[in-house]
Design goal:
homotetramer; 198 residues; 8 helices
């Protein structure tokens, strides 16, 4: 198993998970006024946008990490499979989030559920990088030690931010959703995110 | 992130979105006459054909554009993610369109909803090209300036046509659906579409 | 657009369509005896197997054809998009076939519907080969003329067989399903199918 | 058809099947307490984790096998298509397993159904290897005879273990599910699984 094969498989899972998100948006049932129904589906649209940005940002982040990883071993492979297991799970908390905001009840639990999954994803990102970078085990030996440490700090930011968002969600679910959007626009934003570190 | 990686991921999303369209066509429920039911599903078949042609044409168009783009930066990456977010969304307005024609009510709002999504997709296509081509920022430096301008004009045609179709849809939804088909056959047609410009 | 890009996109649609087939098999509802229900789902398993073999055989056939095609033009691209439109549609007639055999009524119309889609797919296969091979327009110039004619005859076999199966289906739907299985095992069978012609 | 094309198509089916698993987890219906409902869905989460590990392990195993296979012929192609037919089927027994544990009845039949599918998958893995390795028909001629025999013994372990698990499932379904998890962690575990044999 080489890194390009692992990346191609991971890319496949990312692309499929991101495209399956739309299946959670259900067509309004007959005997409704379509225009009004399409407007009332806003929680589904919002959840779709949030999760599309989330998966898009994790995908870019995954590439940024594997740009520095030159070999794969069994442990990294296992960590990556577990990481993908959580990515591929995201359409479910996305649908739960949309459903809760649609109902107008249980938003705190839905947003906290969503955010806690992202926290665990972030922990796996850190585990992968720390395992690969430990004593240059699997990364490019020419990568500067300063850069390795910098990336380690940057990867820490994600799970901490999502852990905070999980707590926020239990009190102010709306604010948590806003945090999800801002966080991922931050990651995707040119010049700021991980990619900006060449 | 290089262009081939970005194209491969985009191709994945195109291929998945185009293949998911069929999931919106539901098998007739028991206790119906199957032959008659299969005929009554014509709005679903029509919507399937329209969206398949739409996504196929956008896919070919995407390649035609990236044929000239030689580098990717953060801004183009973000624009492309937002572009894919709308492509992957298309199975939903497709299902809404089929549902409205099946019901025989609300066709104008469904067709206008569909057409407005395509308009926004067209705007993103233009934003990507304008950003990439501005002062040859990311495109092949050997591309003739005349050709760059020609492509810019061609890309403008899409969102303008769909914006007009959106207005038409509110009055004559059938005519709008006909316009969708004609527009995309035009794009896919050998010798006429963007591909014909070598 | 080069052939490898076209093949990669086509492969994606084949892989997705073949994997989506399983979504049409629904878990038995609560308050049923699971063991008995799993047995009663045999029409779904049968339809799954038939369509998996069908798409698998068409996929292998597609590669065998593109093995000889060295260039792509707009017409071939359009024919291929229309071809893929029918491949990606197959999960629907598959579900209809399973539903009809599950109900125990309307099997003739379901099997004929299924078979007629395969007939049209076969017609597109022929159109693609004839267009590409006409005066060696897009195929390898070193391919022997005898081989070109042989392939043309072989490709003709598919739509003729499926057209016959469509008529058979209207009278003896069970025999038609048996024909689908035999036909595709024939295509997939080592030494006999198209692949055996090196 | 070369091995890289076959592997790319197989990878696509693996990636799609593994990502479709989440679609079987249904959002709790309205008029329920979301927090409690999310907890009661544990059988779905468990089945998701089991099948994700299963498909992940089979995917890695598939690569390990094709690492040694240097040519493809019609028979191997047919065996691989039949193998993929069972992989792509896995979301269904996964959903059945989750449903049975959710109901609290019929767990033995559901777990035995699941396990028997995995047994058949394992039999196909063995058939593929034995066919390819027989008198070095399709494998690397430099592979040591000792290694070929070792791999043959290793591949035998899977279907035997799953056949035993099928019997166990009929009596102690919980123990069978535990066996599925342990077996696949064993396969995925660094240093132990097939990958550890370089």
């Amino acid at each position: 198993m080489n890194t390009s094969r692992l990346e191609a498989f991971s890319d496949g899972v990312f692309a499929i998970a991101i495209t399956l998100l739309v299946l959670e948006i259900k067509v309004p049932p007959p005997d409704t006024v379509l225009g009004a129904e399409l407007l009332q589906l806003w929680p589904s649209y919002l959840a779709y946008v949030v999760s599309f940005l989330v998966i898009g940002a994790i995908w870019i982040n995954h590439h940024a990490m594997f740009h520095h990883i030159v070999r794969v071993d069994g442990t990294l492979l296992l960590l990556n499979v577990l990481h993908l297991m959580l990515i591929a799970f995201l359409p479910f908390p996305t649908a739960v989030l949309a459903e809760a905001f649609h109902r107008g009840t249980d938003e705190p639990i839905a947003a906290a559920f969503y955010s806690s999954i992202l926290t665990v994803i972030g922990i796996f990102v850190n585990a992968m990088w720390r395992y690969a970078a430990h004593e240059y085990r699997l990364i490019d030996p020419h990568l500067a030690a300063k850069k390795v440490r910098k990336l380690r700090r940057q990867f820490l930011f994600g799970p901490i931010a999502y852990a905070i968002a999980t707590v926020v969600a239990l009190v102010l679910p709306w604010l948590a959703v806003l945090l999800f959007i801002l966080l991922n626009l931050f990651y995707l934003w040119p010049r700021w995110g991980y990619r900006s570190t060449p």
